[in-house]
Amino acid sequence: MTTRALALTALTALAGCDPNRTVPERDAFVPQAVQPLECVPNLDGRIEATELRTAFGVPVRYLVNPAGSRRPVDLAGVTDGAGRRVWQLSADYADDQVATLVASRLDGKWYRASFPTGQFVAPLDLGGSIEGVYTNDGQVLSLLGYASATELPPEGRTLVVYTTPIATFRFPLEPGKLWVRATEVRYATVRGLPYAGRDTYQVRVDGAGALELPDVAFTQAMRVRTTLSIEPAVGVSVIRRQVGFVFECFGEVARAVSQDNEMTDDFTTTTELRRLGF
Question: From residue 14, how far is each of 3, 21, 73, 264 by CA, in Å?
Fold first, then answer.
């Protein structure tokens, strides 16, 4: 088609249009504003209280070994070519299960009156049957005691109020920190039975490094070792070791729990291996 023919075609098309018609002007697309994150890791080698705020009602999913099973674990880690400590907890187990844990407020809990200074609760076990009661004053995250999630569970009620709060974290968390705290347990109930005793916690932050999990990697996690000595008024004393890995803004992203009366810090068999994942 010639240039003249194209011009005539265009003129014919324009001649058929309503001379009063206007093309509407439309607004440009405005994307939704991106809300800033409440916490952004700064990887400064320490974890402040502001970097471990409690997120109420937010489900956290962990990959866990089935109840009653054992997992091999390497808690010592290795040193890479750059001199950085690396913990490899990324093995994929076909029989892993998912445990979902949620922190909540104390309001409405059947045991609320027993913990007048409590601020929030979080499950102590993977099944959510026992809840720990905590406070965080910006300096210390304290465990005040624990109770069964429901008032009348089939296995019997549990209600343990510590006479002295236990410092689970002292801020800032950084390698080299160590503290020991003992508390008495009086007039308590465990699984429906009267209970008394003494619990002693030793907590040590003894390392920082990269942590590899099945679904996510953390560049600078803190290794926190907790040794709990349980001395009941009646019965045999028990020692339990726990190694947790804590990351800024996420909290505890992995945990390994020893068999009872394990004597080695870097135990190689764990009764519970929980790892942040899907």
Answer: 17, 11, 78, 89
Say if CB 256 and CB 270 are below 8 A apart.
Answer: yes
Measure the CA–CA gap between 24 and 7, rounded to whole angstroms.
26
198 assigned to some structural domain: yes
Signed CA dihedral, 122, 125, 127, 132: sign only: negative
The answer to whether residue 79 sits within a structural domain is yes
The b-or-e profile of 67-100 (16+ CB within 10 A means b, else e) is: eeeebebebebeeeeeeebebebeeeeeebeebe
In angstroms and rounded to an integer, the radius of gyration of the C-alpha atoms of the chain is: 28
- Determine the distance from the C-alpha atom of residue 4 to the mean position of all C-alpha atoms in its chain, rounded to a whole number: 75
Q: Which pLDDT tens digit goes with each residue over 247-269?
A: 999 999 999 999 999 999 999 99
**3-state SS string over 200-240?**
EEEEEEEEEEEEECCCCEEEEEEEEEEEEEEEECCCCCEEE
Q: What is the rounded distance in angstroms from the CA atom of residue 46 to the CA atom of residue 135?
A: 21
The CATH number covering residue 95 comes to 2.40.360
**What three-state secondary structure class fits 31?**
coil
Structural domains of the chain, count: 1
Entry field: residues in the chain:
278
pTM of the model: 0.86
